[in-house]
Amino acid sequence: MCRGFALVCALLLTSMTVAAQSAPELRLLSEHAVDGMRGGNLSGLARCGKDLWSVSDRDDEQIYLLDTRDPVWQAEPVHIDVPAVPDSGLPWGLRSRTWAASLARGGDLDFEGITCDNAGNRYIVSESHGAVLQVPPAGPASWLKISPILIREARASGMLLKFNALFEGLAISPEGDQLWLAAERESRGLLLIKRQQTLWDCDGGCVLLSEAGMEMQPAQFPGARAVPRDFADLSLFDGKLFTLERNVFEICRRDAQTAKVERCWSYAAEALQENRRYPQAFGLEEALIVDADGAWIGIDNNNGIRADGEVRPIIMRFAAPEGGWSARS
Q1: Are 242 and 291 in contact (CB under 8 A)?
Q2: What gap in Å lies between CA 259 and CA 241, rounded to an integer?
Q3: For residues 185 and 159, what is the distance between their CA atoms, to the nearest angstrom?
Q4: Stated pTM of the model
C-alpha cells in the first residue's frame, strides 16, 4: 500500500505511534474472571443502580446479572422473551450472512452492548439486525421503534457496510430520551437519536462522526502494526461520552453532542502484560463502564486461552485518572 511513498508512510506511522504513547496510562486495581456465561463471549456491561449486568453475543434469550461478592464473579442468567425483530433497513445481504454465521456459532441477535437509564430499563443493541431491545425492570421486552433514517444516514456516511462491523455499543441518557450508538469499524462512527413520543428519530441528523483510516497498535502489543480505527463500546458519564477504542487500547472522552475527542487514556501497560496476552492479533476488549471512581473494561476472549491459562471472560477495574475524568491535562 505504501510502495512509492515509503517516507510519507513512515512519518504517518511514527506520528500515530507517538500519539498512542502520549495517552497517560490508567492504573489497574483488580481483575475478575467471570464464571457461568454460556460460551463466554462477554460483549457488554452496564450498571443499573447497584447491579452489574452483562450480555453475551452468543445468547439470544438471556442476559446476565453479575454476582460480584467474591474475587471470581458469577454470572446468573436472567431469561428474556424476545419478540420478533423489526426490519431496521439493513440490506438483505448483510442480514443473510449473519443468519448463516449464527447457525455455526449461535447468537442470531448478536448482542453487542447493554446500557441502563435511571428508571432501570436495560437497552441491548443487536449488531446483526441494527436494532435496540428495551428490557424493563418488570414486564415484557420490546424493540425500540427507530426511524429508518438512522440506517440510511449511517450507510450514506460509510458506516454499516461490512459484515460483522455494524453496531458495537450504545449509551442512554439518564432520562432515557437520548441514545448513542457506535458503529464498529471501516468506517467507525457515532450516531445519536432522540425519543419523540413513540418514535426514536434523528434531530436534524443522526451522524455525529464517521471516520475511516488506520492507527498503530500500542508498542506493548507483539508485532504492533497499523489497524483500522474502531469503537468497541460506549459509556455516558457526567455528560460526556466515553469510547472504548479497542485496537489502540484506549478510553477517550468525547463531547456528547459533537463526538469531538477531548482526551484519551491508555490501558495498554496493564492489559498487555505478558501473562495477560491472548494469541489474537487484535484487542479483545468489548465492554465499558465509566464512573466517578474508575472504569470497568470487559474482555470477550472468544474462547481463546490467555497466556496464564485463563479461559473465562475477564473484567478489569481501573482507577480514575488523577484529577478525575474531567481533568484537562
Answers
A1: no
A2: 8
A3: 8
A4: 0.91
Q: What is the CATH number of domain 6-319?
A: 2.120.10
- Nearest alpha carbon to residue 40 among 318, 317, 307, 306: 306
Each residue's pLDDT tens digit, 152-183: 999 999 999 998 889 999 999 999 999 999 99
Structure confidence at residue 40 (pLDDT): 72
H or E segment to which residue 14 belongs? helix 6-22
Q: Look up residue 108 and give its three cell numbers.
A: 442470531
In this structure, the chain runs to a length of 329
Residue 149: count of CB within 10 angstroms of its CB: 14
Q: What angle do CA 118, 119, 125 make, to 5 degrees?
A: 80
Domain ranges of the chain: 6-319
pLDDT in tens, 265-310: 999 999 999 999 999 999 999 999 999 999 999 999 888 899 999 9
Distance (Å, whole) CA 261 – CA 326: 13
Cα–Cα distance measured from residue 151 to residue 88, given in angstroms and rounded to the nearest whole number: 7
Cβ neighbours of residue 246 under 8 Å, at least 6 residues apart? Answer: 230, 231, 232, 282, 283, 284, 285, 286
Pick from 102, 92, 97, 89: which is nearest to 41 by CA?
Answer: 102
3-state secondary structure the chain: CCCCCHHHHHHHHHHHHHHHHHCCECCEEEEEEEECCCCCCEEEEEEECCEEEEEECCCCCEEEEEECCCCCEEEEEEECCCCCCCCCCCCHHHHHHHHHHHHHHCCCCCEEEEEECCCCCEEEEECCCCEEEEECCCCCCEECCECCHHHHHHHHCCCCCCCCCCEEEEEECCCCCEEEEEECECCEEEEEEEEECCEEECCCCCEEEEECCEEECCCCCCCCCEEECECCEEEEECCEEEEEEHHHCEEEEEECCCCCEEEEEECHHHHCCHHHCCCCCCCCEEEEEEECCEEEEEECCCCCCCCCCCCCCEEEEEECCCCCCCCCC
Nearest to 267 by CA among 225, 239, 232, 236: 232
